[in-house]
Design brief:
The protein has 137 residues and is of the alpha+beta class. A four-stranded antiparallel sheet has the order 2-3-1-4, sandwiched between helices. The site of adenosine-3',5'-cyclic-monophosphate has 8 residues, from loops. The site of adenosine-3',5'-cyclic-monophosphate (CMP) has 8 residues, from loops.
Length: 137
């Protein structure tokens, strides 16, 4: 079924000029760009976006990292795109993410407090609906 998901190119991806590469992979897979914008996120938005991680040791460093520079927010549509984009992104840890994925090919482990892993993709239809409503009000 056709779905929509939220993709974020995180501050490390934007700073490394990898936005075009991420868009290229999304389009090459056959997904459609529905909306896109450059965002300087506010703390409140990030706290809502990452509400499920509140209280975890990486929560504060994660929010600080996401405040460190602009983010590209993208509304992407396609058949099973929620699962499909997560497959394109690869697993959370860029060191062990499989080659062929965005994180596996391009992600670096800097030994920092939080995984600077280039992209975010919604993990379920419920998350996608919630996150799209937050980032595309
Ligand atoms: P993402 O899956 O987009 O959303 C949660 C983020 O938290 C994740 O990407 C990583 O950037 C970060 N993260 C998740 N787990 C850890 C962890 N164990 N240590 C550090 N950062 C993490």
């Amino acid at each position: 079924a056709v779905q929509e998901t939220l993709v974020l190119v995180k501050p490390d991806g934007v700073a490394r000029s990898l936005t075009g590469e991420v868009l290229r992979r999304i389009e090459a897979k056959g997904y459609s760009l529905v909306d896109i914008k450059l965002v300087e996120a506010e703390r409140e938005l990030l706290a809502e976006h990452y509400a499920e991680h509140e209280g975890k040791p990486f929560f504060e460093p994660l929010v600080e990292f996401m405040l460190s520079g602009p983010i590209v927010a993208i509304r992407v549509a396609g058949d099973r795109v929620i699962e499909g984009f997560r497959a394109l992104a690869g697993t959370t840890d860029p060191t062990t993410a499989l080659p062929g994925t965005i994180r596996g090919d391009l992600g670096r482990d800097w030994g920092l407090k939080v995984q600077q892993n280039l992209v975010h993709g919604s993990d379920s239809p419920e998350s996608a609906a919630r996150e799209l409503a937050l980032w595309f009000k």
